[in-house]
Design goal:
single chain; alpha+beta; 2 helices; about 40% helix; binds zinc ion; DUF1059; DUF1059 domain-containing protein
Length: about 55
């Protein structure tokens, strides 16, 4: 079974319930990056997202 990557935006922004889950890490990072920028106006690098925010589920 492939491991999925999950980003729970609540851990970044307390009042956001957005959750990204994907079995493709690149896709999860891409979606997370877009969400952070579009919704929260924050720029994260791929490494920051991968190392600090994505959970393996
Ligand atoms: Zn969010």
């Amino acid at each position: 079974m492939a491991q999925a990557r999950k980003l729970d935006c609540e851990s970044v922004s307390a009042d956001c319930r957005f959750i990204i889950q994907s079995e493709n890490e690149d896709e999860a990072i891409e979606l997370a990056k877009k969400h952070m920028k579009d919704v929260h106006g924050k720029d994260f690098t791929d490494d920051e997202l991968r190392e600090e925010h994505l959970q393996v589920v």
